Amino acid sequence: MRMSSLLSQTLREAPSDAEIPSHSLLVRAGYIRQLAAGIFTVMPLAKRSLTKIEDIMREEINAIGGQEMAMPVIHPAEIWKKTGRWGKVGPEMGRFQDRNGRDMVLAMTHEETVVDVIKDEIQSYRQLPMLIYHIQTKWRDDPRPRAGLIRVREFTMKDSYSLDRDWEGLDRQYRAHYQTYFDIFNRCKLPVIAVESDVGMMGGNMAHEFMYLTPVGEDTLLLCDQCGYSANRQIADFQKQGSPPEEPLEREKVATPAAKTIADLTEYLDLPARKTSKVVFLMATMLEDGEDVEKLVFAIVRGDMDLNETKLANAIGAKQLRPAEENEIKAVGAVPGYASPIGLDQVMIVVDDLIPETQNLVAGANEEGYHFLNVNYGRDYQAEMVVDIAAAKDGDACPRCGEPLNAVRGIEVGNIFKLGTWYSEAADATFQNEQGKEEPVVMGSYGIGSGRLLASVVEEHHDDYGMILPITIAPYEVHLVSLEGKKSEAEEVRKFSEKLYRELREGGLEVLYDDRDESPGVKFNDADLIGCPVRLTVGSRSLEKGGVEVKLRHQKERNLIPVDEIVDSVREKVDQLYADINENLEEVELES
RNA sequence: CGGGGUGUAGCGCAGAGGGCAGCGCGCCGCGUUUGGGACGCGGAGGUCGACGGUUCAAGUCCGUCCACCCCGACCA
After folding, report:
1. How many whole angstroms separate alpha carbon A53 and alpha carbon A187?
2. Please, which positions of strand B sit below 7 A from a protein CB?
């Protein structure tokens, strides 16, 4: 490709709205342009990289038996009503009506179209197992897109769906994806870890997220260096440090003026936070008899802990949780700042499992300016549910080995879910077993977003001058810089560069050729910004020494290649760069 | 949805005591220069986010709305 005719222009200055390196560099290098919040145009350079990423995914998924297909972006609402997600998923689903007023859906994932198609196509156990996938556009109307390609509303995803007759089969395909996903990320030179995760709106009963660890990530993970435990904070367990048992003491009301927070309270009463209990008020949207109902929930954790809303939502089966408003809290007789479950009956009370084991806690008195001392669960109030709803944090004890957990941030670049039979049962996607009995197909679903992956690779591989892309996903393998220099020498250099450009391509290399009439500084800076792995420089200076200069983007060193060895030598370097990546894939083990 | 911020040329920004719409980069032309973002001369490019109001006169004052960014809520 000649840069003189490339659509993208590089920018000297960083776009003002970019806060993280990948966003800034991808825009500056001319890879992407923004159309609206969370909606980007993919320019030619990025398109080539994304195509390479997608080809890697294609190869890897094909290698574990995947069949590529293409499912529609626009779905009739019926298939989403059938699985219940038309009602279950909120405003992040794109909906519109066609000309006849029929409800339509913009695909945010494709379980619905999968079960719709397999309910007719899969009839016999003889057709299973099967793995189907596509690479296709999704729309998720995220309330807050941000960080360039990291969190967008429209994106391309490789999503595969495994179909099996039983859970053993699903487990095999799940494990195959687990390994394959590491291979895909390794081929893109992106370091990732797999963590246990919440199943969220996808349903199912086992899920892993593939996380690229970086401070710009939005997910918090808890990792144990000692035993390898790793989980998204949303579901992370930890060993709670209980207090020594005490004899329950008599409840006592004390004045605690202007002590509305745990911090105020502990200071005023001179008690540690773990001697208090904390109430979090939430409005939970629950599905009852097909209708959405909002219920006020009092979630109670020990004062030194935080509520984990995901754990709570999963425990009570809530579709959504939002903070309750003051009037909603007062309506049941509670007093914000001094609230407790004592004496309330119109509220759903959920307590963390540590609370019943802890005696003589401080709790609100539901009266402005007063708290109770020595509140004991069971004696003073009862809960609808006692379950783990506390959030793990940095330094908490690992649930497996007890060593302190580390909290780190990460970007979710891929996920795998064991869906089970939930979707197939909803859509009646069944097959006949050997006994001629109908059974639901056992499903798994597996996704990787290609744009987020590209952005993550840029986060990992860049310097002050630009991107440093691994050869497997760089738009071009070779960046050929022609420095024509003085008028007297320009003709000779140009001729040489043109010939070299042709020969490199004939040698099977992908070349970005800077044939523009620009100064050397501009060309070098653009080459660094765009980030192709091998740079060749042709100039009168190099030709006088009998060759061209070669420099790898990730190294400082420059070398001269003699004129008659250029193509072979570059070929060799390029092959080596591929080999460094592709021959170092590791085997991973998924613990059961 | 709550809090904060920003909308002026392709990009980055000034102009804010109402009175001819500017600078740098980029872009076009000519010439000089030529191994790490060169220089000179000449040029093109704007419904100042939108609508409404105040005024002889609005980029500037007032109102409403919209878009984008950041934090939170939320989310894969």
Report:
1. 9
2. 1, 11-13, 24-26, 33-38, 67-76
